[in-house]
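One such given next:
>
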Amino acid sequence: MSSLAATQGNTANASRVIQPAWVRAMHWTNAVAIILMIMSGLQVYNASPLFKSLTFSHSITLGGWLGGALLWHFAAMWLLMINGLAYLITGFATGRFAKKLFPISVRGIISDVTAALTFKLSHDDLSKYNQVQKILYAGIIAVGIVIVLSGLSIWKPVQLQYLTALFGGYDIARYVHFFCMSAIVAFLVIHVLLALLVPKSLRAMIIGR
């Protein structure tokens, strides 16, 4: 009897929608836009490095030269801004953010980090984020907003002079933009590793269930 109940429970979980279609579509659109922006952004960076000892191989850049990289960067920028704004509006309007990302507690983060380090963190219910996921996803949304604003202040420092001044000037805005990009790259590495460790989460982001 218990075996039958477990089978029925597994069947119900398999048929339950974990990631709605709009989340999946916007997630993969954002993924493409971010990768294009990072690769083209590295080429733009190489044209005027912030750190003289740090440049990036052309094998991981996009655009071939400064002009080409800027064209890719701006095209991806509009895709990211439009899709990202739609994601934020839909996330708040549907209550998804309130349900998925909050509340966040320091105690919960410490507990879940400890569980993760000892390989005891449960991934049975993909519809609920643990505290580590909550802080990572909320944090990357905040970083995404900052990188867009700092990028705009670099792109139009005269027209958007008040925004540029908010970052402490053009030069400091470049550093903010670079470190936000670094944070996004670090997030992507962690995100991909976790997806590989929990394959069913990747499946849910592809087929929804």
In short: Confidence is low (pLDDT under 50) at residues 1-13.
